[in-house]
Design goal:
Layout: H1 3-25, H2 42-109, H3 116-123, H4 134-198, H5 202-222, H6 244-255, H7 273-283, H8 292-298, E1 300-302, E2 312-315, E3 320-326, E4 329-332, E5 341-344, E6 350-355
Length: 358
């Protein structure tokens, strides 16, 4: 790089930094981006585009973090509900035991034998096989105290678990709220950045679209997985065909092409990246974790060299995911303002590949 070229790039980056600061600090609805780079400067336009893509990456990270927190909070809510039901059943059981113990005490005080039916109904595995032998009834009465103490211990433990679960749920809800707030802030930045991008002239927009095409073509040449050099999605020839559940997942995902990206959406009218992949595999009869990070952590990992249609390619720091469809292509929900589409599998930094359904 010569000095004059370096100087121009430094000035351009400084202009973009000023623009992003303006976006962050002046979110008024009528803001007109004072100090923005000259729209005739193609290099500056490219940097605006890059800054916008950076904001989308931040937003996707924030959204996936929120989705993860939401899933954890929802699961904890279900666990707490289950514990409370168990606690209620245990308390009911203790009430029955208390009543039976009282009946036993009254019968023994009168010098009689407690009818064994009540004990058998409470303690036996087969209520229809009631005890009919007095000696067995007396043995059951001796066990009654032990059973009652065991139930009391169970109730104490359930009390402890329920209290701990309730506290954990409060923490998870607080975490979810924090992540929702962070997501909201970055979405406001993006809204302002999109307004600036929308204000670009048609010729500038055309140049940016051309830049996207060039980057996509370069990404195709960088693909080193199977089907390298194969034909593009939809043309048929040269692509590895999916089969079984994977074919169903691919067909479902491909049928969503054209539907908009929406934060946190899982269909049927819109999706985010992991919402698309999780819903597609659920439609194929194999539910998988909701978020891209959980998919990366919880599904079977395979090598990039053995990737097959239906596999999920995980990108960046596991905050984006696409479904491989063969021919070096994925189908994915890219970002706000875009729709579900196909793209070169090598168009983003790959973390790894996971295979659902195994």
């Amino acid at each position: 790089m010569n000095v004059s070229t370096g100087g121009r790039r430094l000035r351009s980056r400084a202009a973009i930094a000023a623009l992003v600061c303006a976006i962050t600090l002046l979110p008024g609805p009528s803001y007109a981006a004072p100090g923005a780079p000259d729209p005739q400067d193609d290099q500056s336009i490219e940097h605006i585009h890059n800054e916008l893509n950076g904001l989308y990456r931040e937003a996707e990270v924030a959204t996936e973090a929120y989705n993860t927190a939401d899933v954890k909070a929802t699961e904890q809510e279900k666990r707490l509900t289950s514990l409370r039901k168990d606690l209620a059943r245990t308390e009911g059981r203790l009430g029955d035991l208390h009543d039976l113990a009282g009946a036993a005490a009254r019968t023994q005080y009168r010098g009689g034998n407690l009818d064994s039916t009540g004990i058998q109904l409470l303690l036996g595995d087969h209520p229809d096989q009631a005890l009919n032998d007095a000696s067995q009834a007396r043995q059951a009465l001796r066990n009654l105290v032990n059973v009652s103490e065991s139930q009391k211990s169970a109730r104490v433990e359930l009390d402890r678990q329920t209290d701990a679960a309730a506290e954990k749920l409060r923490e998870l809800k607080s975490s979810r709220a924090d992540k929702a707030e962070a997501k909201g802030k970055i979405e406001k930045k993006i809204a302002e950045a999109e307004r600036i991008e929308a204000g670009l002239k048609k010729e500038q927009t055309r140049k940016l679209a051309q830049l996207d095409k060039e980057q996509a073509q370069e990404a195709k040449s960088q693909w080193t997985g199977p089907d390298a050099g194969g034909t593009s999605a939809g043309s048929g020839g040269g692509r590895t065909k999916a089969s079984g559940a994977a074919a169903k997942a691919v067909d479902f995902a491909m049928a969503q092409i054209g539907k908009p990206y929406v934060w946190g959406a899982v269909g049927p009218s819109s999706y985010d990246c992991s919402g698309l992949t999780s819903t597609a595999w659920a439609a194929a009869g194999h539910p998988i974790p909701r978020t891209s990070q959980a998919q990366w952590q919880g599904l079977t990992r395979v090598s990039l060299a053995s990737v097959q249609p239906g596999d999920l390619i995980i990108y960046y720091d596991a905050t984006h995911v696409g479904m491989y469809i063969g021919g070096g292509q994925i189908v994915h929900a890219p970002r706000p303002g875009r729709t579900v589409t196909t793209a070169p599998a090598a168009s983003m930094p790959i973390v790894g590949v996971v295979r659902p359904g195994v």
